[in-house]
Design goal:
Creatine Amidinohydrolase; four-stranded antiparallel β-sheet; 5 helices; binds 2-amino-4-trifluoromethylsulfanyl-butyric acid; binds cobalt (II) ion
Length: about 280
């Protein structure tokens, strides 16, 4: 099958799906407070996606080969949970960190994004892990342009994370996304520059590094989904869906509540005629 390139009208559909997914995170943000449960957050997200956005939560019933059907409309991964945490009825408490990962299908197109939330007041260590992981995702995003290679993205993320003495999870990666939730290519968050697939305009994939405060080793829980760090160290993740444009990249999963990019990202180039 290979990598599916998206046409301008496909991209228009992906922009809508991406914005909707990000808007679910905006909606959840004021609710992520001590005492709320991830199951309550899941219900808020589900109702909004289905009844307000007219979309479908892609994770609900999602069943890749070898997995049980995923039972919820978002993933909520708390503290040492790396990814794919299943919402439950345990209240979040002050100091927890939680990744919330939302994928909305709208008119057949998938928008996939996640953010970290610090519940109440986080420790310095927890805040630093979340911030460095956010910057690591953007270190990968800014590599995206025609002629660059997937290995450039992975290398930028790995170098940055390891410079901060964190480790990069290897078993899960970013992915092509479009009419399917997970398609080619795989987007590794580690690697060597100048290696792997060359990027061309019209590719759309996620960049979603999982960064551990301790060792990179992970373990799957008996629920068949939840991934945790083997050493129970904290783990963080951020995710955007990104389009390769003629000149660079466009992040498709932005909305009014998206956190600002780090300072090193700079402002998008403005054509001279528009700037004059
Ligand atoms: N949204 C996740 C990703 O970024 C996938 C979650 S699949 C689920 O690829 F079934 F666990 F929800
Ligand atoms: Co994804
Ligand atoms: Co996701």
């Amino acid at each position: 099958m290979g990598i599916v390139l998206k046409s301008p009208s496909d991209v228009a559909g992906m922009r809508v799906a991406g914005r909707l997914a990000s808007e679910v995170l905006d909606l959840l943000t004021p609710h992520v407070k001590p005492g709320i449960t991830t199951l309550e957050l899941d219900k808020i997200a589900h109702d909004h996606i289905v009844h307000v956005q007219g979309g479908v939560p892609a994770t609900l019933g999602y069943q890749p080969p070898g997995y049980p059907p995923y039972p919820a409309s978002l993933c909520a991964s708390v503290n040492h949970q790396v990814c794919h945490g299943i919402p439950n009825d345990k209240p979040l408490k002050n100091g927890d960190i939680v990744n919330i990962d939302v994928t909305v299908i709208k008119d057949g197109w998938h928008g996939d994004t996640s953010r970290m939330f610090i519940v109440g007041e986080g420790s310095i260590a927890a805040r630093r892990l979340c911030q460095v992981t956010y910057e690591a995702m953007w270190k990968g995003i800014v590599k995206v342009r025609p002629g660059a290679r997937l290995g450039d993205i992975g290398h930028a993320i790995q170098t940055f994370a390891e410079h901060h003495s964190y480790s990069v999870v290897r078993e899960f990666c970013g992915h092509g996304v479009g009419a399917k939730f997970h398609e080619e290519p795989q987007v590794l968050h580690y690697g060597r520059p100048g290696t792997l697939e060359e990027l061309v305009p019209g590719m759309i994939f996620t960049i979603e590094p999982m960064i551990n405060a301790g060792r990179r080793d992970i373990r799957e829980m008996p629920d068949g989904w939840t991934i945790v760090t083997r050493d129970r160290s904290l783990s963080a993740q951020w995710e955007h869906t990104v389009l390769v444009t003629e000149t660079g990249y466009e992040v498709l999963t932005l909305s009014a509540g998206s956190p600002a990019p780090p300072a090193f990202v700079g402002v998008p180039a403005v054509p001279a005629v528009a700037a004059a």
